[in-house]
Design goal:
α9 runs parallel beside α11, α10 packs across α11 and α12 packs parallel to α13. The chain is α/β, with parallel strands linked by helices and 561 residues long. An eight-stranded parallel β-sheet has the order 12-11-10-9-6-5-14-13. Strands 15-16-17-22-19-20 form a six-stranded antiparallel β-sheet. A hairpin with a 5-residue loop joins β16 and β17. The radius of gyration is 50 Å and the shape is globular. Helices cover 34% and strands 19% of the residues.
Length: 561
Amino acid sequence: MWAELIQYIPCRIKAQASLTHRVLPTRTSGASGFSLGLSKRNFNRYFSLFGKAGRRSAYITKMSKDTEVDMKDVELNEVDQEKQPMTGGDANHDSISPVSEKNGVVKVKIPHEETKFTGLSKEELLQVAGTPWWVRVRWALLILFWLGWLGMLAGAIAIIVQAPRCKPLPEMNWWNYGPLYQIGDVKAFTESSDLDGLVKKMSEMDHLKVKGLIIGPIHVSEVDKSEELKLDTISPEAGTPESFKKVIHEAHRKGIFVVLDLTPNYNGEKPWFNKGRIDDVAIQVKSALIHWLKMGVDGFLFYGVDEVSTVAPSSWNDINVIIRNQTEGEKKKVLIGVTNKTSPRDIAEMLNSTGVDLLLSGALRSKSGSGIAETVDQLYSNYNQTKLAWNLGERVSGHLASLVGEAHVKLHQLLLLTLPGTPVFNYGDEIGLEDNANKSPMMVWQTSEINEMNPFHTFFKDVSQERMRERSLQHGEYFTLFNSSSALSYVRRWDQSERYLIALNWENDTVPLQLKHADLPEQATVVFNTITTPEAGEILDLAKLELKPNQGLMLKFPYTS
């Protein structure tokens, strides 16, 4: 009975420490088996105490292998005198032999009760939410939210209002975005000497950031024989209509436009034959325009526009109308004229009388730094830069290197690519190609690796790419900083974009510029240099700037409000 009872005695565990009690089981000499070494009074006391703890769910049980509750040892080692083992018994009962055994250890299971937070129930939440305190808190948070939102909105509006306004971009045409590249003699330009070879060169044109090709003339024309003129027929030496269509298709695929040189008597001395034939030839030109426009041509170039517009004004006006009416959406067709005029006044008159979009001329040819500055200033002040074209060489005049000399090729590449307007180059100007007897030298084609070693080619490509990227160089404002007989310096700027300063020296002597201007900072960074030093990325003091012989510099500096 005692053995069964001891298994179910509740145990009271204090919170501060494990409760320990010494219990001495002893064996009797008789069959009574098992007895506790406690007096009846003490047993009743412990039983009452443990009974209360049992009602608090603490209990003692046997060890089990299946349990998942951690076991804790509770050592019953109380030293209370009344809990010590007893050495004697009642005379009428079996005596308890003296105990030589040590106090035992009882294994006690103490389960860990995990408390899980379940939150408030729906009813409790509704009860709390309706209290006046929470209603005030919700209103306060709502008001703070809207005040914060309105504050951020007001701040954003203030920033927008106070920020400097962006200048609207000017209206530009496709021919204003990059250089035009003239291929006057297809046979001299390609290894195969025909239009099929030109198709294979489109990747190189794209690499140079060329925006338009001026091809030809390629039509049938005998020298000074207007009766043999066939403006809508491709010369067999140049190729076939199918080849020309491939040229147009491949160029358009690369984002390059195709302009056709349709000058009637391109092999003769007078571009439109003699004066008595000009009107008849102009009528043929009008019908030929429709033919080439249907094929996909993006514009036309004519030499001798000053003569034809004067001798046959009605026919020339019809030519203008035909080209203008063929505009497709935003892709306008361009009309380019060529004149031998060199003075800014004559060029201005030609622009007004002919109605061309661009006019190639000798405006920059054989002029000093001050002469170039004067020409540019006059034309820029009277015309939108989208109407201005800058060139030195062309199909009739020859190539850049032959006109200015090899030492000045880079200087003029830099000049043409940074003036306000459209730069126009003759084929081979990017590599310093020089003329032969008939000004149509064979183009020198090399591998891309060798081309990169050509200083003219690399410089042209890099400056052309910079022009394509930067708004200040594409359509920025222009103003002159310094000019003399041997040197020229000017600035290109647009709104809040980076500014570019160009400085050129055509003489064999060093020129001190000492640039000071209200719009200039104290220093600027080198972008390109036609000679070896200073290198790109170096910072120069503008007040102490000097140009070495035959040196050209492109510098840049940031916008400041």
